[in-house]
Design brief:
Chain C: Keywords: Membrane, Sulfate transport, Transmembrane, Transmembrane helix, Transport. The complex is a heterotrimer of chains A (about 270), B (about 350) and C (about 260). Chain A has about 270 residues and is mostly helical. In chain A, about 80% of the residues lie in helices and about 0% in strands. Chain A has 2 domains: about 1-35; about 45-270, MetI-like fold (Orthogonal Bundle), CATH 1.10.3720. Chain A is globular. Classes of the chains: A mainly alpha (about 270), B alpha+beta (about 350), C mainly alpha (about 260).
């Protein structure tokens, strides 16, 4: 009897501890930032959020992240296809390398890109000759975003390709479809849910990226200053209200994406 | 379509999946490829379809060699084991696919799809997705999709394997009727002998990559040409010492010969049940099993144990009962030869020994 | 066609992943072996690496424990309603969507020296923001979903039948966990832990905001890389980056290993 009671106390304590941890660590800060953004009044919030530089930063981030996502959709779909469908020496090595951007500190990634694209590097000089600069300009931001979000699409498409019944493809051939027609009409629709959810995740990660971008973007307001760097700048200059306002904007956007992904995945499993 | 296959061989690595297979199929026939799993049936089917390359041998359609023709150009309909329906397309979309890639006109496609939907009894399900259909319906969609481009040959890989036993019977006769009506040459693969016997005009028994026998179900049953075919078709027991069975003494002339005895070769009953009592031996009932429409009786006859059926109309037997056993015939085989031997005592009205 | 695709993929991987790694290595040895060792043996480097290591260890231990417990509750608990479970489940992912800078900002806003909570802790002599505790909290926040997301699907997949079988055989909850549940999730936990270590090791934005990047005090390896780059001390930055990259590659190998073990089980 006493041991049972003891067991119940134990598990009750455990539960509360875990739930409390969860609340304090995750829910509290998020509620906190939304609360804080409105703490100094609606007009203050509105003026911070309508600050043209802030808007420009957010819009630039979205534009850069979109381009990076499109690049990743193309490159990621191709890589997933090659890694699953073809057997060639080095395939396993490449497959392990996919996760490298997840394992590598983003600041290190930023440094790598900085070195590779810098004015003294081969690429830097080449682009200089061709009349444009990459480093500290928008292309560098895109490259940094592509790098850190590289694994998402690949990792989302691979399982779908692996699961796909080879007979479905053969059925298309038997019905007279060419390889190209089979790819577009049978294989691609099978990969599409993975491409979409991978792209959404990549997009939201690209929106949030800081470490890799801060080192390679010029951080010129209105031109190469992305939202997270803008927020960082506001924090550094002690304008927390401004930082909070932009954060809330960016957060809401990211949450919407995340929930869309969850919804799509749930529907896919349900259907 | 008239099909001729000669000297067909296929290897997967070291494994010889198909060994020197030859056959010919007349136009309009329904052929069952029957054999144990992993015996090479599906490989033969896939080579006919062009989904697997041919190592050696020739495949002729209407006398024309098609070995190097890609599957797209062979004009074959293929129904896959798990149907392989396109998950992201509706029933209509699936059926229309083969017509769309052949660039049929919109109206013609619409008409053809409607015709097939009607034919396969899928009316009302046109807009459904595969995951919203039952197993039997999916099978019919797969069938309709394969038929849509008007193929001259229909190949079906284990078409009923993924369907509940009850619906399977219905679908079998449905498929049989459908193929009869369309008059399309069809080949299906199965490991279920009942299915092959019930549906096919001609059965080809495939084992370990070889074609063991080809013929009508009745021929194969009556006249198995190899011990494998004999044991694969129907139920049977093997008796090692044939000459000890009453009426088969002559078999002693072939040492090392074994007998395969089917239940329907054996009759059991009270002495009064038999006209030729002298041809029967005394046995003892070991078990009786109720089989729904008959009794399955296991009898012990000396060292041998035989099974037979017994009508429900007859007197019920019990384990331990002493019964008379008559063996009408046995299928004898040794390493070199195989033949059917009738009970000699049954043939001779005046038996020598009493 | 096939060759073209393989070639293209190999090229992308080489350009995007391999060349940068090689370039970092070259950069670290720009001034020869001495430059490399000098960059690493500076007191601030040693201190930063030590900070990073401390954070990684503490964060991994705490999140491994709470992550596994929370996954168990979210999948198995009967004392949570279905709706609440779904809600909590979608909240778990939120840190993925939060920019690390914003994560850091949240902690500054809640626990900074000017806030009520921060002042309370300050009176007790504990500073959180611009000190180790804040950095740990920031990293905890960022890495929280990693283990939960690895473990939950497996728990869902294996179902509760085995656990029920164990309890009908008279096993206590404790025994059931260690002898039945744990063996089937252990490799996922290991995989999640490796991911957590990688992320904690590399966390930059959140830590930068929370720590204030005070040299020899709250500076971590990644924020030191940042500062060195800002100060045009590229060789030193490269040296630290090389050490971090080597750590990442090791983690990558561990990931592959954990993945292969996970598939076996």
């Amino acid at each position: 009897m006493s041991s049972m009671l003891q067991g119940r106390w134990w598990s009750w304590g455990f539960r509360s501890a875990v739930m409390l941890y969860f609340m304090v660590l995750i829910i509290f800060p998020i509620l906190g930032i939304y609360g804080q953004s409105l703490s100094s009044g609606w007009s203050d919030f509105a003026s911070n959020i309508t600050e043209p530089l802030a808007w420009k930063a957010v819009l630039l981030t979205i534009r850069m992240a979109l381009i990076a996502t499109v690049v990743n959709i193309l490159v990621g779909t191709m890589s997933a296809w090659v890694l699953i469908r073809y057997r060639f020496p080095g395939r396993r090595l490449l497959n392990s390398l996919v996760d490298l951007p997840f394992a590598l500190p983003t600041a290190v990634a930023g440094l790598m890109i900085l070195l590779l694209l810098g004015p003294r590097s081969f690429v830097g000089q080449l682009s200089e000759k061709l009349g444009f600069t990459i480093l500290f300009h928008q292309p560098a931001i895109i490259i940094a975003m592509v790098f850190v979000t590289f694994p998402f699409v690949i990792r989302a498409v691979q399982p779908l390709l692996e699961e796909m019944d080879a007979a479905e493809e053969e059925a298309a051939y038997m019905l007279g479809a060419t390889k190209a027609a089979t790819f577009w009409r049978v294989i691609l629709p099978n990969m599409l849910p993975g491409i979409l959810s991978g792209a959404m995740l990549a997009f939201s990660r690209a929106l949030a990226e800081f470490g890799a971008v801060v080192l390679v973007a010029g951080n010129i307001p209105g031109k190469t200053l992305i939202a997270s760097v803008y927020i960082f700048g506001e924090i550094e200059s002690d304008n927390t209200v401004g930082a909070t306002a932009v954060s809330v904007l960016l957060l809401t956007f990211s949450f919407l994406i995340l929930w869309t992904v969850n919804y799509v995945q749930m529907r896919r499993k349900g259907g | 379509m008239h099909i001729e296959v000669s000297g067909l061989n296929k290897k997967f690595g070291e494994f010889q999946a198909v060994k020197d297979v030859n056959f010919e199929i007349e136009k309009g026939q329904l052929i069952g490829l029957l054999g144990p799993s992993g015996g090479g049936k599906t490989s033969i089917l896939r080579m006919l379809a062009g989904l697997e390359s041919v190592d050696e041998g020739e495949i002729l359609f209407h006398g024309k060699r098609v070995n190097d023709l890609p599957p797209q150009e062979r004009g074959i309909g293929f129904v896959f084991q798990n149907y392989a329906l396109f998950k992201h397309m509706t029933v209509e979309g699936n059926i229309a696919f083969g017509l769309e890639v052949k660039k049929w006109s919109k109206e013609k496609i619409k008409a053809r799809v409607a015709e097939l939907v009607e034919l396969t009894g899928l009316s009302g399900f046109e807009k459904r997705y595969p995951h919203q259909l039952s197993g039997g319906q999916r099978q019919r969609v797969a069938f309709a999709r394969a038929l849509a481009p008007e193929p001259q040959l229909l190949l079906l890989d284990e078409p009923f394997a993924a369907i509940d036993a009850k619906i399977r019977h219905e679908l079998r006769s449905w498929l049989r009727d459908m193929i009869d009506r369309l008059g399309i040459t069809s080949i299906f693969v199965t490991h279920d002998q009942d299915e092959a016997i019930e549906v096919a005009d001609q059965i080809m028994i495939i084992n370990k990559g070889r074609l063991e026998q080809k013929g009508s179900p009745w021929e194969i049953y009556k006249n198995p040409q190899s011990p494998f075919v004999a044991s694969f078709i129907g139920e049977s027991t093997i008796v090692d010492d044939v000459s000890s069975l009453l009426g088969f003494g002559e078999a002693a002339a072939w040492p090392g010969t074994k007998a395969l005895i089917r239940p329907e070769y054996v009759e059991v009953g009270k002495p009064s049940d038999f006209e030729l009592l002298s041809a029967t031996a005394k046995g003892r009932v070991r078990h009786v099993h109720f089989r729904g429409s008959e009794w399955l009786v296991e009898v012990e006859l000396g060292a041998a144990r035989l099974v037979t059926y017994r009508s429900l109309e007859k007197e019920i037997l019990h384990p331990g009962d002493e019964v008379q056993v008559l063996i009408h015939r046995a299928y004898l085989f040794n390493d070199n030869d195989s033949w059917v031997m009738e009970n000699k005592l049954k043939e001779d009205p005046m038996p020598v020994h009493i | 066609m096939r060759r073209l695709w393989i070639g293209l993929t190999v090229a992308v991987f080489a350009l995007l992943l391999v060349v940068p790694l090689v370039r970092i290595t070259m950069g670290a040895f720009n001034d020869g072996w001495n430059g490399f060792t000098h960059g690493l043996s500076r007191p601030e480097t040693l201190h930063a690496l030590f900070m990073t290591l401390t954070i990684v260890i503490i964060v991994t231990v705490i999140n491994a424990f709470f992550g596994v417990m929370l996954s168990l509750y979210l999948v198995r608990a009967t004392w949570l309603g279905q709706k609440i479970k779904q809600l909590l489940n979608s909240i778990v992912d939120l840190p993925f969507a939060v920019s690390p800078v914003i994560g850091g900002l949240m902690i500054v806003l809640l626990l900074g020296p000017d806030t009520a909570l921060g002042a309370l802790f300050g009176k007790a002599g504990i500073s959180i923001v611009y000190a180790l505790p804040g950095m740990i909290i920031a990293t905890l926040f960022v890495t929280f979903p990693l283990i939960v997301r690895e473990v939950m699907p497996v728990l869902q997949e294996i179902g509760s039948a085995q656990e029920e079988a164990a309890s009908t055989l008279g096993a206590s909850a404790w025994t059931t966990f260690w002898r039945v549940t744990w063996p089937s999730i252990q490799w996922c936990v290991v995989y999640g832990v490796v991911l957590t270590v990688a992320r904690a090791l590399g966390e930059f934005g959140a830590v930068l905001v929370v720590s204030g990047n005070i040299i020899n005090k709250t500076q971590t390896a990644t924020t030191l890389v940042y500062q060195d780059v800002e100060n045009f001390n590229l060789t030193a930055a490269n040296s630290i980056a090389l050490v971090l990259a080597a750590g990442s590659v090791t983690l990558l190998l561990l990931m592959e290993w954990a993945k292969s073990r996970r598939e076996v089980h």
